[in-house]
Structure formats: C-alpha cells, structure tokens
Fold each of these.
Amino acid sequence: MGLSNSIYLNTSGPIAIAHRGASAEQPENTMAAFEAAVSLGYRYIETDVHLTRDGVLIAFHDDRLDRVTAEKGKVSQLNWSQVKQARVSGCEPIPQLIDILNAWPNLCVNIDPKSDRAVQALAETVKQCKAEDRVCIGSFSGARLNKIRKHFDGAVCTSMGPMEVLKLRLASLTIPGFSGLAKKSPAKCAQIPTHQWNIRLIDKPFIDKAHELGQKVHVWTINDRSEMNRLLDLNVDGIMSDDAALLKSVFEARNLW
C-alpha cells in the first residue's frame, strides 16, 4: 500500500474533523463521541492514544485518568482491567483504538500517540486493522513521527513535527536564505493551531507555501464560527473542532459538506 492511496491526501476541498469525536456533545474520546460525529455525517475524527501497563492501546488524551474520570493514576502504570472500570464524565467507558477502527471501517482517523510506549502498539494496530490508507498520525514529538515513518516505510500519512512546522513557517517568510528550508519534509500535512507561544502560524503566506510544497494544512482546535469562516477563506485544507455540529453548519453554509 503506497502513500498515494491515502484518503487524507486524495480529497478535494477542505475536510471537517471532529476533535476527540463530537466532544462538545458527548464525553471526549469515547465511543459515544465518535458515534455522535459519525451520525452527523463526519468522515474524519481525531483521537489520542496511550498504552496501559499491560500493553492495551486506548483512546485517551491525558497521561492520567484524573481530569475526565473519577479514577486516579497514570495510564502507563495501570492494567487494562483497571482502566476499563473508569468512566469518562461519569458515564462512558474508555475505548480501545482497535474498537474504533473496527467499528467504522470507512472512517478516517487522525491519531496522536501521546507517549513513546504507544508508538509500536499504534503501528501494529493500524496494520492489524488494515487501516493504513485511512489514518493520519500526528505528534508533538518528531522522534515518534520518525519511528512511525520508518515502521511503515513512508506508506502512512503523517503530519509535521515541531521542527518541520518551524521550517515551513520560516520558509513562508520573505527572508533571504529561508525559502528552501521545508523542501525535504517527509510529512504530507501540517496540523497546527493558529498561534503557538503567541506567534502567528497560520496566515496566507504559510498556507501558500505549504500548498506550493504539496502539503495540506489542518488547523486545530477551532470552536468559533467566524474563525472557521476566516480560515476557510484563507484556503486551509481542514479544520478540527470540538463543536462538530457548528463546524458542519459552517461547511454546509459554504456548500462544502
């Protein structure tokens, strides 16, 4: 399977991505949230993964259970038998990634491995589910992204790591000597916020440079209607939002759904 088969790369027009599922409607990163997004008609969702102590790959953002469940403890120090007893927002169980990939075999899933331990298990799960053409893997860790790329020999879509984003940002500026910095990135998209450390990342020069280099630009996490419209006017390739219903309504109003 080659990268040319990636659904993430072979789409026309911008895509709407439900961040942690329809997390404004249902508890984040749960089957209920993903089902809510699918029911709205979403073809793209975003999730995060951690590995339990006994090697089970779960869809969960934090490294601890504390914020979104009544249970406490680090995921990496708990067995699956303990984690599966927890309830997100007091009502929804924490799913395994394999259950998400198997439940919706045509659903595209953006996945962020939140720990080094999760990388190998993520690669194995994607292969087991034959989901190489419908996942995009992103991370704040360039090292994790490089491991994924080596594991799949470049045959899975990955987004840019922090240094790759920096090079693209610099290449987009009209500063002598910077224009060639981003030419060799193995990533196929930049998935970034509008600002980082009070520095603007997303503007027309950035998007134009990314497109010149064959890169998609997906922006997270946008929950404001006017900002969604502004970004679409700039010609971004995708928007991630917690408010799946709002994002859908914006896409519908622009005949993009």
Amino acid sequence: MHRSVYVHVPFCRHRCGYCDFTLVAGRDDLADRYLAALDRELDRVEPPEAGGRRELDTLFLGGGTPTRLTGPQLDRLFASVFRRYQLGEGAEVSVEANPSDVTPELIDRLADAGVNRISLGVQSFDAAALKTLERDHLPADVPRVLETVRRRIDNVSLDLIYAVPGQDLAGWEETLDAALALEPTHLSTYGLTFEKGTAFWSRRRRGELISPPEESERDMYAAAMDRPAAAGLRQYELSSHARPGFECRHNRAYWSGDEFEAFGPGAASLLGGVRRMNHRGVLGWLRRLEAGESPWIEEEALGPADRARELVMLNLRRVEGIDGEDFPRRTGFKIDELLSEELLEQQRLGLVERDDAGVRLTREGRFVADGVMSAFL
C-alpha cells in the first residue's frame, strides 16, 4: 500500500531561466480553477476497503511555488487533500517555499495545517549568482527568513545550486559555508543544468552564458560532498545531506522504489507497477479535469526486468546503494543475474563497489553517476 503523496502546485511569480518544471508564471488568476480541478482529481482516489481515509507517511507540496498561493487558497488545498487522506503518526509533511514569500502568517498557517518540514529555495548566498539565476531575494534575507520559519517549524532544508555561470570554486565554497553556518537540518546541492527549451539553453547557445570548466564543476561537487560532512550533515543521496534523523523521508521513498501517488499538472505516480504521467501543460490538465476526463496522458506497465533495472538506477542514487537482500526479494532477480557483465565493467573502472551488503557507487562513481546508471539500462 502506497503511503506517500505528492501535490504539484504550478504557480510562480517568474519563470527562472534554468527552470523546465511544469508551471505558469504571472497567472495567479488560474489558482482557483487549479484548486477546483485538483479537488476533482483527488475525487479519483479510492478509499481503503474499510472506508475512511488513506493514511500517509509523507506528503510533499512542490512546484512551481506552493507558497505563491494565498492563505485561503492554501487552506483549500489542504482541505482537499485531507478529505481523502489522513496523516499517520509522525508523518512528514513538506512544503517548498520561496524565501520572498515567507511571513509569520504564512508559517503559522502551514504549521497549523500539519506542515513540519520546509524546503527553502535559497540557491545561493552570492548576490551575483542570484541575479544570474533570476531569483528575487538577497543573501541577507535568508537568516531573517530562517528565523521566521523556525518559530514554528524546526526541520528546514536549504536548496543550493552550483556551477552557475561566473561562479568559481571559492565562491561556491563561500555559499556552502554561509548555508552551513545557519545550521539547517538538511541541505540539497544541485549542479546547474541547461535543459533544452529553457531560456538558459538558448542563451548558452548564443554565447551569453558560459558554464564553469568541467574540472571546476567537479571540484564544486567534491566540496558539496565534503563541507557538509565536516559540519555534521551526512550525504545520503547524490545531492542530499542531512543531520541524523532528518533525511527527507518522502524522497527516500522515491529512491527506494516505493509506490507513490501524485496530483497536479505534470505529476507522475507509481502504483501497482504502473507508472502514470499527468498532462504537463497546466491549461491542458485543467481542461481535461473540467471536462470530466482523466488527467493522465501516459500509462506504462513495467515488466519485471524493466522494473528491476529501474530500481537499480533509483537505489544507486542512495549512498547506501542497492541492498543485496532486499533487491531480490522485491524484484525476483539477483543483482548478478540481471547485471553481471555491466557490473563487472563498472567495478573494473572503479565506479561501483560491492560486498555482502550490496552494491553502491564509489566516491569516484558519484562524479559520473549518470553514466554509470545508463550503463545498467
């Protein structure tokens, strides 16, 4: 039985040039239509056999910018979710927040709704990098924002981006140190990517944006692994670091290959071995639900071998890697049966290691994780 739910809130004040997520910018006028459509989508949830509401271990509101909704709109969203689901004891409830949106009133409203984890889109503590990333806050805003959040919610994750055009290793290390000085419970560190179709993709092709050299980006990732560890945050996933007990349980469910349900435009679910994808266009998703149609545009039932290989890729994102006992129990395959030649080659290259506990990326393998994982497809 799945016990994790994701809700996608697709509103932003501005679409940052690097962003390829499903969202609309400057269209807050669509929020009430979105909430009505979300309610219709949630109506598709089947109650448990015993009746009542399904119980959740984790609930995650992401975006877009969930905190772009007004207070009454947030109340309406939570009311829709909690008509179909209830929080289990000790459930983790996360909301992504833009620093510029945070007020005492917002945090009180979120905490009163049951939110106990905030993921704050800080991205950088360098004013020049924030300008390049088209963010609407300043580095000096973040300590005040954190103080406001911590009045009610202690579990705060900071999201950071490295390899920003114009950034060097020293600048990235300063951002890491500034973030760690604020003693977050969790830190996410992402290398900037230039996705096709984004404004940054076009600007780089025109020569307006130049990425740091590959060796510099490698050094930045090394710093992203080492500096948080020295400050007491353990790396538990390729881009994630946490104080003991503060790992993001919702994301761990993804990387463990657990089933989950997701709602909103562009949201993807995994239930009963079937992966479903909602319409990515916000207006298209709205129109489908307003017409009484399914929001799904893709549905794929994974075969046993494909499901097992997908689990390999998900598990390898975890520092702990693939559990040698759990993997065959869940998939029906032993790792050697599924990946014998590929595994030996990656071991020979020094990119994965294995022992009685299972298989995991080496430190060197983390630098080229995407390539290692593609070798197992």
Amino acid sequence: MRDVRSWKYALVLGLAALVVGCSSKDTKELPPAELPKFTAEVQLKEEWSRSVGVGQGKTYNMLQPAVDGDTIFAADVEGKIVALDRYTGKVRWSKNLKRPISGAVGAGYGQVLVGTLQGEVISLDSASGEEQWRTRVTSEVLAAPATNGDVVVVQTQDDRLIALEAASGNHRWIYESTPAVLTLRGTSTPIVTNQLAIAGLSSGKVIALDTRRGLPIWEQRVAIPTGRSELERVVDIDGNLLLSGGTLYVSAYQGRVEALDLESGRPLWQREASSYGGVAQGYGSVYVSLASGTVEAIDERSSSALWSNDALARRQLSTPAVFSSYVAVGDKEGYLHLLSQVDGRFVGRIHVDRHGLRARPLVVGDWLYAYGNGGELVALTIR
C-alpha cells in the first residue's frame, strides 16, 4: 500500500504543475515563462557558499535549512548533516547518518532534528553533532520535526501527529487522522508553542492539539474538496504554517489563504487561492506564491489583493520570504527573485543553483540563505 501511495504522490506532483497550462486533453503543457528583463535596483552580494552533499534529490524533498543562534544547519537527501557558522560558512561539524533524509531540519533547545524515509526521527546535539536518540514512527517523515524544548512533534506521511519526549525520544502521544486518497508529496512542518501543536492536514484542515496529552483544542477547514476526479479534489496543506503574534497564516492547494486566531482557530479573514507552498508576512501584507506561478500580496485588513505579479508563470515557485523591504522567491531554474513589497515589480535577481531552488529562502536579520536543489547553500546580503 505504501508503494501505491508513494506513486500517487509523484503523480500529483507532476500533474499539479500542468493544471494551469492544460485546459483540455488536447492542450499541450506550456513551458515556463521566460525571465522578464528589468533594471536592477538592488544588488545581492554573495557572502559565502558551500556544497551540502547531493542536495534535495529527485523525489521533490523539501529539506529546509534551520538557524539556531549563529549556526545554520542543512541536510542532504542521502543523510549528510552539516553545521556552519552562518556568518562565514565555516564548517563546525559534519555527520553522515547513512539514512535517506526527507524531513529536515528542525533546530532549537540544543537539538538538531531530522526525519527519514524509513520512518525515523533522529536527534543530534547541536554543538557537537553527536546522536542523542533515534525513534521509529508510523511512516515516512516528509517535513522537519518541531520542538518547544519539552516535546518534539512530527507529522508523518499518513497524516499522523506524533509527540516524542525531547530529552529521550520516547513516545508521549499520537493523534490519528485519515489522509486524503490523493495528496501532494509532502506535509507542512508543525508549529509547537508551549501549549499547542498545530499542523495542516491533507484533508484541508488545520488542527491544534494540547502538547501534553495530544487532545484536540480546535480544528478549522481551509479548503473543501470539489470536482469529480480525485485530482480536482486535492486540497492538501503542504506549505509551512506561519505564526505571527496571535495570528496563524495558512494556505492550501486548490483552497484558500486564511488568517486564523491562534487560541480559537476562528477565521480572521480568507481569500480564494491555490498554493502548494506557505506564505510570508510583513508590513501589513501577506505574500503567497500561487500554483500558477503568480506572486500575490494580500492586505491583512481587507483581504484584497494589493498587487499581483504573473511574470513567473509556470516556474514552480518556492514559498516567498520577506527580506528587508522586498519579497524573495526562488524558481525551478535556480533563480532567486527580489520583488518590491510596494507594487511587486522586480528589483533584483541572482542565480543560485542550476538544479533549481525549491526550498523557501531563509531570512535571519539582514542575511538570506538559499539552499538549491543540487546542494548549493548560499548566504546573501543586500549591497
């Protein structure tokens, strides 16, 4: 059964990219839009770059790096994990787990956490890279584990949420959920606060659980399956959730972008959208990369579109990130684009990795870290 589901994941991934270009059986897939020309207003400076093994691999992994303090952690699909000084790129330690990593990287409270295709969660000491514990869960782990220092929460391919004791890896609780028949390949990374574990499910729902016992506190539907075919009914929440203050932001494929009240799950606003990534937020706006390749800015007060840039159509964009006064987004050819937060115009561009740029750009202060599909990790600043 697992092999069948894995095949379905790959199927939907491939077909999702064609939806915007195929209006009928006779319509051929349209190629990615050509890169638009513009006069650069911002220069991106490469501070350092390092190769992290083979990178993301060929199965659409989303191995997002993580920063904890002045260290950045990154992993490749074959099991290599590196810890680097985030300002210089100097290697602090490197470890080969000899396991196919598919969920990476979670970091914090002295731990580095990854999940594997073999259904394991592995914790390493963030200072030395020494293994602390290794625990088997119910199925593949396709997103980074998350921790609050007391509990580690992981979402598995079969839509279960599993809580492990942060100190030992022992099981604390498990929340059962029925996955959709057909989904995108991947899951969102849970958010863990002191009291709540929050995750997006393949059914189009967001669930908040008590971190101590795993009891549901609230759930909210972000997308409702419609259509006659299973493909048309895919409403997976695949992109990372975003928590800002007391507001939770979430987007769903063939669903909506929504802002929810963290404590109650009550919708604050919503807007129809289809996205397989998450959202970015800043300066009173929410930014989302739509499945079509359009980047859109949404006013948090009115939920209306402030601007829309469709010049990157069919370029399979990453989740956007707010970087200084700009919106940064990667594409399938490995370009990182900077757009103005004011009107969405292009202001800068740099090529990162010829194999593509799938993972969301990671922004920490005045630094941006881009991790290419081929394993190139680049630190950038604005000149």
